[in-house]
Design goal:
CATH topology: UDP-N-acetylmuramoyl-L-alanine:D-glutamate ligase
Number of strands: 9
Structural class: alpha/beta
Strand content: 5-15%
Largest sheet: 9 strands, mixed
Order of helices and strands: HEHEHEHEHEHHEEEHHHHE
Distance between the termini: 37 Å
Bound molecules: adenosine-5'-diphosphate, 4-methyl-5-hydroxyethylthiazole phosphate, magnesium ion
Organism: Coptis chinensis
InterPro entries: Hyethyz_kinase, Ribokinase-like
Helix content: 40-55%
GO molecular function: ATP binding; hydroxyethylthiazole kinase activity; magnesium ion binding
GO biological process, one term: thiamine biosynthetic process
Catalytic activity: 5-(2-hydroxyethyl)-4-methylthiazole + ATP = 4-methyl-5-(2-phosphooxyethyl)-thiazole + ADP + H(+)
CATH superfamily: Ribokinase
Radius of gyration: 19 Å
Oligomer: single chain
Length: about 280
């Protein structure tokens, strides 16, 4: 007869928590599909199409609306807001600030994508002003989050060996009062206390422009579904997007067809694929 092994309590709890992410993510995507939240995106010219299609495929309702003349009428009615500085210009910045200010005042969750934040002084200053307007989530790639960390927390305060490591990420999240997500082969998400890694997605997603922008918009949709749990919403959105990328990759021939199949997979995602695909682990 096989010997029965006993699992220590703490390990059991960790395993249960990790197992539970599949149902958390499924509940959130189901809620997005049921609620069809209205997501305002003030974004760049490159990402508008994939962002709108990603939102629509997830069940959300996208609105790419950025004129300063419309912000005060429109932003109060949205369920979440996504601000992306990819093709920032002086005439769009006031709209971003005005929309972010209104969202924060009205408790509408909003997410910031600091695209190429270190490309210019103008962009960095604008981004820091937007961070000051209290995004609920900041999602960028490693170089963008490192640049923000250095500018917000101060390079002297960051460990030289661990400049974009977990402790500096936690410091950034605490300094900004936001959930911070760094995307990559493994996405790292922290709320300043907890840290999780999302092990989904495929490397080909990096060969497509604006996949990062698209997943930031999906985070906004998940925030709309569960505004009180931004950490869970962010990790789940990144994981669901990654699972859609994995399924899409099985049918894709390259970056262009991956784009199409990822969106199709997101649209058709079922409970079985979510439960078996979501791979989120706690990190020390
Ligand atoms: N090497 C990789 N393996 C798996 N998924 C990846 C990889 N690189 C990026 N991704 C995924 O691609 C999406 C965009 O991330 P990233 O390329 O880091 O953003 P950005 O486009 O803003 O630079 C995220 O969902 C991320 O998880
Ligand atoms: C190429 C480019 N130029 C300005 S914004 C943009 C898209 C960036 O998209 P992502 O950050 O998702 O790769
Ligand atoms: Mg990006």
């Amino acid at each position: 007869m096989e010997e029965k092994k006993t699992i220590p309590e703490t390990q059991k709890e960790e395993e249960e928590e990790e197992e539970d992410w599949g149902s958390k993510a499924w509940k959130l995507i189901t809620k997005v599909r049921e609620k069809a939240p209205l997501i305002q995106c003030i974004t760049n010219y490159v990402s508008m199409d994939i962002m709108a299609n990603t939102l629509l495929a997830s069940g959300a309702s996208p609105a790419m609306l950025h004129s300063i003349n419309e912000i005060s009428d429109f932003t109060p009615h949205v369920h979440a807001l996504c601000i992306n500085i990819g093709t920032l210009s002086p005439d769009w910045l006031p709209s971003m600030k005005s929309s972010a200010t209104l969202a924060t005042q009205l408790n509408i969750p909003w997410v910031l994508d600091p695209v190429a934040v270190s490309a210019s002084d103008f962009r960095l200053k604008a981004c820091l002003q937007l961070v000051g307007l209290k995004p609920v989530v900041i999602r960028g790639n490693a170089s963008e989050i490192l640049a923000l960390s250095t500018a917000s927390v101060g390079s002297d305060k960051l460990s030289k060996i661990n400049r974009c490591g977990r402790s500096s990420l936690k410091s950034l999240a605490q300094a900004c009062g936001a959930v911070v997500a760094v995307s990559g082969a493994v996405d790292i998400i922290t709320d300043g206390k907890r840290v999780v890694g999302v092990h989904n997605g495929v490397p080909m997603m990096q060969r497509d422009y604006a996949t990062g922008c698209a997943v930031t918009a999906l985070i906004a949709a998940f925030l709309a579904a569960d505004p009180l749990r931004p950490f869970e919403a962010t990790a789940s959105a990144l994981s669901i997007f990654g699972v859609a990328g994995e399924i899409g990759m099985d049918l894709a021939k390259g970056p262009a067809s991956l784009r199409m199949h990822l969106i199709d997979s997101l649209h058709g995602l079922d409970q079985k694929s979510v439960f078996s695909g979501v791979n989120i682990t706690s990190m020390p």
